Amino acid sequence: MTKTKRIIGMVLGILFIELHEKLSLTGAEISLNELPAGANVPFVHSHKENEEIYGILSGNGKAIIDGEEISLSTGDWLKIAPTAKRQFFASDISGITYICIQVKENSLEHFTAEDAVIG
User: Fold this and answer.
1) Are 86 and 64 in contact (CB under 8 A)?
2) pLDDT tens per residue across all 119 residues of the chain
3) Which string of DSSP letters, residue by residue, matches 67-117?
4) Which residue in 37, 92, 93, 97 has the most C-beta neighbors within 10 A?
5) Cβ atoms 24, 42 nearer than 8 A
């Protein structure tokens, strides 16, 4: 088992924690991200092979995905295809904290009970 202490980075005022290196992940990238009120991820991006799953842990904001604006609030989850262009924004009155899980699209072959070994 790999355990890590809190690893924090800051880029352009955006708090993030990336876990792939710290936990020696081999099949996923997981990051925790926090945007203060009125802030946004300062770039639009997409991926070559990896889909992303976003879970909103607290706060409010929006995502613009391929030109479509989607409102976000605590408890919302999104799956975004690799080639979709995306950018995230906190609302003007509250920040937003979210988890991003990045995995290779169509790579899941087994899960939960199908992949479990009991005993």
Assistant:
1) yes
2) 333 344 444 444 556 677 777 777 788 888 888 999 999 988 899 999 999 999 999 999 999 999 999 999 999 999 999 999 999 999 999 999 999 999 998 887 777 777 777 78
3) TEEEEEETT-EEEE-TTS-EEEEE-SSS-EEEEEEEEETT-----GGGT--
4) 97
5) no
CA distance 53 to 36: 21
Burial level of 105, CB count in 10 A (0-12/13-18/19+)? middle
* Residue carrying structure tokens 């790579």: 107
Residue 115's Cβ-side half-sphere holds a number of Cα atoms within 13 Å equal to 5
Token digits for 29? 């990238």
